[in-house]
Amino acid sequence: MNIGIFNFITDYSMPITELAPAVEERGFDSLWLPEHTHIPTSRKSPYPEADELPHEYLHTLEPFVTLAAAATVTTTLKLGTGITLIIERDTITTAKSAATLDHLSGGRLLFGLGGGWNQEEAEHHGTEWKTRFKRLEEQMQAMKLIFTEDEAEFHGKYVDFDPIWAWPKPVQDPHPPLYLGGETIHTLRRVVKYGNGWLPRAGWPEKVLEGIGTLRQLAEEEGRDPSSINISVFAMPEDKEWISKFTDAGVDRLIFFLAPEDADTTLQNLDRLTTFVE
């Protein structure tokens, strides 16, 4: 069982160059950062987890740049995007960013992907909301080709390019593991077909436990070894009962939320979470 940390890194919280080594020193295996390019002031899309949108959503740093900074001050800590809003990004440029980070870190990227919840945010990037997951599927396929082929080519409805050269290639073979966020049956099918890991949120524990069984069944139906799919439960509550249930279910990693605070408060919270590593 690996234990990771998810931090909503901001422009006012503990700097990443201090946080990342502190996470590594305490024995956590990974540090995961979110992505929001912006939050539309219209606030038409309701925040799915509470009545009020947390303040940190307005202040998040760009994940690839921030994780690159983390890579320079750590040696073994895995660097996760939790999650990259790939539907808001150019596919070729994002593949370049991911491969560069994996190259510079010596093969430590855990590449979390998803479609997000904020419709207006996605539409500001030119993404059609109702087709976002079809776009995501094509983007995953295209990036895997860019990562692994000397002359990658992809022709889909949402992603379309003739043969290209693109280096560096990722250090990890064949590419950084692709994790998908989400808890629906459609997500589970995408994980089996295109991904290497599942990144469900722990806020719906019974649904996650049910999904673990469904994921393994789907993998077997597709002729895939279920153990080849990493299950990392995201935003895990500090609840020993649920930790035991997820451990018994064979989850590979638990990722605990660390609030964006000043250095003193952050280190106190991190020390408390270290008990779960021990």
Task: Give your account of this protein's structure.
The protein has 278 residues and is of the alpha/beta class. Helix 1 packs across helix 2 and helix 6 packs across helix 7. The radius of gyration is 18 Å and the shape is globular.
What keywords describe this structure?
single chain; 278 residues; alpha/beta; TIM Barrel; 39% helix; 19% strand
Layout of secondary structure:
Blueprint: E1 2-7, H1 16-25, E2 30-33, H2 63-72, E3 78-85, H3 91-104, E4 109-114, H4 119-124, H5 132-148, E5 152-155, E6 160-164, E7 178-181, H6 185-194, E8 197-199, H7 205-221, E9 230-236, H8 240-248, E10 253-258, H9 263-277
Parallel strand pairs: 1-2, 1-10, 2-3, 3-4, 4-7, 7-8, 8-9, 9-10
Antiparallel strand pairs: 5-6
Helix pairs in contact: 1-2, 1-9, 2-3, 3-5, 6-7
Please give a quick description of this structure.
This protein has 278 residues and is an alpha/beta fold. The chain has nine helices and ten strands. It has helices at 16-25, 63-72, 91-104, 119-124, 132-148, 185-194, 205-221, 240-248, 263-277; strands at residues 2-7, 30-33, 78-85, 109-114, 152-155, 160-164, 178-181, 197-199, 230-236, 253-258.
